[in-house]
Structure formats: C-alpha cells, structure tokens
Amino acid sequence: MRLLILLLTSSLALAAFAQSDGLSPSAPDGLRKGGTVGQDLPAPPIAGDPRSVKREVRSYPEQPPVIPHTIRDYQVDKNFNRCLDCHSRESAVRAGAPMVSVTHFMDRHFQVRAEVTPGRYFCTQCHVPQTDAEDLVDSNFKAVDQVIRDSVAGGRND
Amino acid sequence: MIKWLKFYWSLLRKPSVHYSIGFLTLSGFIAGIIFWGGFNTALEVTNTEAFCIGCHEMQSNPYEELKNTVHYTNRSGVRAECSDCHVPHGWTHKVARKMEASKEVWGWVFGSINTPEKYEAKRRELAEREWKRLKANDSLECRNCHEFDSMDFTLQDPRAAQAHSTALVSSEQTCIDCHKGIAHKLPDMTGVHR
C-alpha cells in the first residue's frame, strides 16, 4: 500500500514537473518550431486544396508529377482506384487526362503488363496534390534545368 | 362467427340513435387529424438520421463512410442525411420506398450485415440495388437538392461541363451513371461500366 502511494505521488510530481513551462526544457526545433517537451502545440492548419492549378513542370525527369487537382474522398483500395478512372490506359483519351506512364505497367522483372501492377497501384505513395503550403524548412533545391544553366553560366565566367 | 359479423354489419348500417350527425362528423374529422397526423409523424421519425443509425450495422458501416465525404462535411455546412439520398421527398414515392424498406427490417432481424465482413461481402449487391433504383427514378433523390436548371456549366470543370451539357441534358444518362460511390465506398467494380 505504501509503495503504491509513493509510486502515485512520484508519478504525479513527475507529471506536474513535465507540465510546468519553467522547468521543462524547450523542444528541439524540428518541423514544428517552439514549445517545450511537455507542451502540446496545436497542429498548423491543413494546406489549402488545389482548385484550379495548372500542371507543373517536373524538376527532374524521374520526378513523380504532382497532382493538379483536388483528390478529396478519392477511393484507392482493393475494390476500386478512382485515379485510374481517368488516368488508366483505357480511359485517359476519353477523359482528357494524362495516361499513367508505362513504368507503372512494368512488374519487378521489367515485364510490361496490360494493367497497372500492384507495386505502382497506390498513387499517393508517390504523387501528391500541389498545395499552397509553405516550406517547412529552408531548402536550396534547384530544378535540374536551373543547375545546368547555372553551371553553364559558371563555366563561362571562368 | 357469421352471426357476429352479421350483427356488426347491421349495426354499422343503422342510422345513429343517440348521436347527432354534427357530433359524428366533427369527431370523424378530429379522429382523422389525429390518425393522419400520427401516421405522418411516425413516418418522419423513420426518416431521421438518429433512427437510421439506431442500428449498429448502419452506425458502424455506411455512416462511418459517409462521415469523410463532402455530403457530410464541407465549406458551407449544408449536409445530406441518410434519408436525403435514400428516400424520395415527395409523399407518394416516399411511401412506396418505405414499403420497400420493410425488407431492411427483415435484414436487421436476421442480422444479414451485422459484421464488417458480412457488410463487405454484400457491398456489391447493396450498391447495385441502389444504382438500379436511382437509375430507374432518374436520380430523384439527387435532384432533391441538385437542381439541374440552376447548374451553371461555366462554373464547372471543363470535363464536368462537357458531360452535363450533353448526356445529362438529353436524359441519355442520369446522375448515378457517373457519380457512383460518392457517399460510401465502392465495391469491387469489375465489369461495372462507369
């Protein structure tokens, strides 16, 4: 009984310690800055839905293209793939949508199949909608064309 | 038995001895209000969402799926309840649908979809029944809210505008032909033309 009381009080004290801002160390500045270890910060608002954005140029050839439309409630599971409703080989022309690239039809032995293979079936594993979200961290990423242009310009300067 | 029936038949045919025609007319009128009002109230109760999800099979399967969709949560807060899509609003069609729905009571009593597995196994059959129903009544329930004459094609996606201004105008196709699985998950769609 005594042990139980001791345990309870000590855990309560620990909890109180963790809650108080003054004693709690500040959290590492990861993707969500600010706050302390013991503090729960509200999640940032979800980025806006793309309503009528244009198709974006890919930054490098193998980049999975971003999705230029909203995909809310799109069902992609064993029963049905809503994306393929328009982007499949059969429907793309009628729907006026780009067909999924031929790599999606290749199985693991690079054998091209008639349908999208299971390995490439779950679209949002690679493709995401373009939103107005701000960058979470600073990045000096450049599209490959920019890198080439810079290096050519740099070469001239030498 | 025959004697008993004969007695009541002659009683019904006889003019009233004790009550005035005014009293009988008035009491008939009042009883009519009570019974008709009671019937309609009960009918409306069975049309509420609380009634539909009173059974756990509706609460934990179709209702949970609806919750993610635009018909449950959206910008302007207008939402569709179960009955908005599954029961027509006009009285005649509503009562016809209610009679049809007595089969659902049978399903509930015998627990035909009382587990997620059973629901999944029957998903195609249930979906097909709804598709057929909506195809037959020209998507009447959709049109409870979505007024064709008020659709502005210029504000729609080019592809949507194209489809609405051709196949829908000519009544060649109806809402459900393209808009399947908008409020619940779709079943295995092999062989279904969309």
Give a description of the structure.
- The complex is a heterodimer of chains A (about 160) and B (about 190).
- Chain A has about 160 residues and is mostly helical.
- Chain A folds into 2 domains: about 1-40, no CATH class; about 45-130, Flavocytochrome C3, Chain A (Flavocytochrome C3, Chain A, domain 2, Orthogonal Bundle).
- Chain A contains 4 helices and no strands.
- Chain B is mainly alpha-helical.
- Chain B has a single domain, classed as Multiheme cytochrome fold (Orthogonal Bundle).
- Helix content of chain B is about 55%, strand content about 0%.
- Chains A and B meet through loops of A and loops of B.
Distance between the termini of chain B: 61 Å
Sketch the major β-sheet of chain B. none
Average of the residue pLDDT scores of chain A: 83
How many β-strand runs of chain B? Answer: 0
Provide the low-confidence segments of chain A as ranges: none
Overall average residue pLDDT of chain B = 90
CATH topology of chain B: Multiheme cytochrome fold
Helix content of chain A: 25-40%
The run of helices and strands of chain B is HHHHHHHHHHH
Specify the number of helices of chain A: 4
CATH homologous superfamily classification of the largest domain in chain A: Flavocytochrome C3, Chain A
Topology:
The complex is a heterodimer of chains A (158) and B (194).
Chain A: H1 2-19, H2 84-87, H3 92-95, H4 144-157
Chain B: H1 2-13, H2 21-45, H3 49-52, H4 56-60, H5 62-66, H6 82-86, H7 91-100, H8 102-109, H9 116-136, H10 158-168, H11 175-178
Question: Notable features of this structure?
Answer:
heterodimer, A: 158 residues, mainly alpha, Flavocytochrome C3, Chain A, domain 2, B: 194 residues, Multiheme cytochrome fold, 11 helices, 0% strand
